[in-house]
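If you are new to this repository, start here. Below is one unmodified record pulled from the training split, so you can see the exact layout before writing a loader.
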Amino acid sequence: MWRREFDRLPVKMNVKYVNGTTEHMGTLLNLSEKGMFISSRVHLPMKPQINVFIPVGNDTLRVTARIRSFGVGQNYCRGLGVEIIKPPQKYIDFISVLRTAAKRTE
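And here is the target side for that same chain:
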């Protein structure tokens, strides 16, 4: 059975993602060092690569990702699963902070 390299952390954050020249808004529902799921009404067709902009305090993290799957709802796509391409160190640090905070609340 296939298993992810990193466990996903549940979150709920509004994000912007850009596919080609088109901007979309979505809600980040989970993430890890290598991937994330963005809930959004997806408009097909889409290019295979997107840029995701995650607000973190007064900063915005830009992450480049490859679309790996579409979450399918009743007659529409409800989001997309993406694989992070070369995660920047700021993103890795952000995940580390989230993991530490999650362990404190367990």
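Two things worth knowing about this chain: Residues 27 and 35 are 14 Å apart (CA to CA). The longest helix spans residues 89-105.
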